# Entry
Amino acid sequence: MSIALETPNAAARPHRLAWLRDMVGRRSGAIGLAIVLAHVVLALVSPWIAPYDPVAQDVTSMLVAPGAEHWLGTDKLGRDVFTRTLLGGREALLITALASIIAMIWGGLLGMMLGLVGGRIDEWVMRVVDALLSIPWILTLLLFVTILGTGTVVLIFILGFSYGLTVIRIARAAALDIVTKDFVLAAQARGHDRWTIVNRELMPNVRDSLAVEAAMNWSWMLLGFSSLSFLGFGVAPPTPDWGLMISDSRGIMATAPWTVVAPMVALASLIIGINLAADALAKALGIDRSQKAPL
Amino acid sequence: MMMRHGLAMAAIAALMATTAAAETTLRRSGDLGFGGAENLDPISPTRFYEANDLIYNRLVSWGPDGLPAPELAKSWSASPDAMEWTLVLQDGVKFHDGSDFDATDVKYSLERIKDPALESPVTSVLNMIDRVEVVDPLTAKIVLSSAHADLPLLFLDYRVRMIPDGSGATIATTGIGTGPFKLETLDPEGTTVLLANDDYWQGRPKVDRVEIISIPDQEARIQALLGGQLDYSDLNGDQVATFEGNEDFVIQHYPSGDWQGLVMRTDTAPFTDARVRKALRMVVNRQEMADLVVGPGGGTPSCDHPVWAGDSYRSAIECGADIEGAKALLAEAGYADGIDIDVHTSDLEAGMVRMVEVYQQQAAPAGIRVNIVMAAPDGFWSDVWMVEPFVSTSWGQRPADQILNEAYRSGSSWNESYFADAEFDSLLDQARAELDLTKRTALYHAAQAALWERGGSLIPYHINGVRAVRAVVKGMPEAGEDYIAWHLVEKTGD
# Structure
């Protein structure tokens, strides 16, 4: 007599990169990935292709309209808007990408562990998480920035911590679906410690949900980071940064719209690109995003 | 039928009368620079100057020639040695609570400024007043501890306002003055409402209400002005284009002694070294900085002297950007490889951050590496200014003697650079006591030269004021706020 046990990854994928093929095969996925890749490549190579020094001021060419010499015009200090827009995503991309990794690691591990441990600890921690999530995200960020100050490292940790809270929920919910499965029970019966169970049994099954969550989180984080810059708490001037550029020129939006439109389009296109890619990724991995908690 | 017709006519007449008498409200902004700690005590370190300007009167006001003109003091005269000044007061002036204004109120208001417990920034301005004697209800004699040949100039200070005798404990919330408007509700973080003082001694104001709406951000103030939520606002150079050609607004340009600058704490390293301070100041191309920050024509260059071009005591120092000179001074002070400094600034006022950005670029060739540190606009004056070692600053126009004493005399509470220089203090003392105008002028010039050599303030230019006023607002002169006769301002529409 044989006992049929559920096994992890029962429905094994035909190929490790099948999800990528599926994603690219979808129009939204292809467009989204192309946009994101373009931004990443531009961020990497922009210091070498930018036509002007991004911080060089020129009193003789302040607020020049777009033309042959300055494709996207100049700002109030005579700085080239095209150059600053090209370079304006570097800090945002770097900081939010690193912060996303931090959010995924601490949020994902804690969420899975809570799903596995359950009981009173799970209950208490989740109530604290719920309480923190009930505070509007911009207030949470401003609170941390006020206490800890700004700076690249601080911002990475602030964003990583704040956005990790939503990951806890997702990881915990995904883990709760799995902890009652036979292969997890069997691992527990074999006497594996919790870390091993999280690592070997839960992680492979929660990974897809976390991947989609990471992509979505990234776009929200970009918005959060740019909001901080807009409010004067992100990147310090004169570093080119989209949020800072929009903030700096918002008062002259009516008379010199090019100073605001270029960074707005750059930021919006990146966020749209990430969202399209995340959506296609979710579909490729067979995850119904409508079932996920709002970020 | 006739009776019904008559009633209808009466109702229409009443409605028309109501419409004709519709309340007019002038809306202006407050900048929330003290983070909500603003109060109505005119000499408080966190005075609510946007409201106080309308609630209280001064003894003298700015005349069109830049000299003192009568306000609550009808006339004044000095003893030959300038140790005693006699003021003759206006008759028939009443406070908002109905009490008469007289010489006892002058005595109380001026002597209160000396109270050390109040930590008033005005103390250093009027510290030469020994006592005030009440000669009769309409005559006050001011006895000085040291001669001052220009005493009435000091009464032009926007904080030297007359309050009722004995009202010090409550004035911060009651706001009882003799001014054209009286307090209805005080809400420094929201909207403060003032109502017209029907018994104002210079005639009833032409608007019924004034609302002071707190908007800390300059760009937000401009949007509020465009949206009709404010009736006027100051502009910076590049905001002028937004209003040009818009018939709903009138743009006013006026000379002023206001300035924005950067200030170092001379009691904090590395700014304790006068060579470092001078090097950090001498790298600036002042005309270029003015053009970049406030727009062409928006500023009159200054060589770190706080005395503005319209003041007869301004010295004629010349200064151009001297990168090599700055490098040499830094090397002499032990910074041959350059120096790293943090400059704390905020988006509190238009141009503040931009000035630091320009400074960063202009200072870089001399090896001065500026790191810009952003601070929140609300509470900037309480938490950053006079706290951090190198910060943005902003001052309103003041007469020479006042600004030199208030901002640079040792121990003055708004000595933002913590400048302590016995020789400088002595020059100010001598100038005040000097009755010969030529000699007095020379002493003030020497004091300004000392600031250029050893001071901690970078004052690149004085701002030429620009203001956008809604076309429905009349009676606002093309001059700084200190010159506005608020009871003459009116609104012809809403």
